[in-house]
Amino acid sequence: QGPVCTNLGLKPGQHLTVKGKIAPNAKSFVMNLGKDATLLGLHFNPRFDAHGDVNTIVCNSKKVEEWGAEHRETVFPFQKGGTAEITFSVNQNDVTVHLPGHQFTFPNRLNLSVFDYFDTQGDFILQSLSWE
């Protein structure tokens, strides 16, 4: 478990940019954005080789203990031992995930008006976090 941020206050029109280093022997890492640890509007999980997925980004939402339907992205711009910069842009009805050379949107299934919570887990070393 990496750092946990609370009271972020991210609203539609705002962005959160995460920079860090991926472990050389990485299997997967996770970034969660939501209201708190139990209400996750976006569970962002790049998997190098985990849970039967290889080089796949799996996204989901979580309401208390209930996960939604998994969304898979096959574009995988991450490298073991490399650096990563990911920007999450909060919109009214979804979150746009900006990756190197690729972007996609994930619906705001929980209808969160504010994203207050962020955490990282797994094979990712957070170097900087900025929002505007």
Short précis:
With 132 residues, the chain is mostly beta strands.
Question: Descriptors for this entry?
Answer:
seven-stranded antiparallel beta sheet; mainly beta; single chain; Jelly Rolls
Structure description:
Residues 2-132 form the Galectin domain. GO terms for molecular function: lactose binding; laminin binding. This is Galectin. Keywords: Lectin. Strands 1, 3, 4, 5, 6, 7 and 11 form a seven-stranded antiparallel sheet that branches. A five-stranded antiparallel sheet has the order 10-9-8-2-12, with no helix packed on it. The protein has a single domain (14-131), classed as Jelly Rolls (Sandwich). The protein has strands spanning 4-5, 15-22, 29-34, 39-50, 53-63, 66-67, 71-73, 83-90, 94-99, 102-107, 117-122, 124-131. It has no helices and twelve strands.
Chart the SSEs and their pairings:
Layout: E1 4-5, E2 15-22, E3 29-34, E4 39-50, E5 53-63, E6 66-67, E7 71-73, E8 83-90, E9 94-99, E10 102-107, E11 117-122, E12 124-131
Antiparallel strand pairs: 1-11, 2-8, 2-12, 3-4, 3-11, 4-5, 5-6, 5-7, 8-9, 9-10
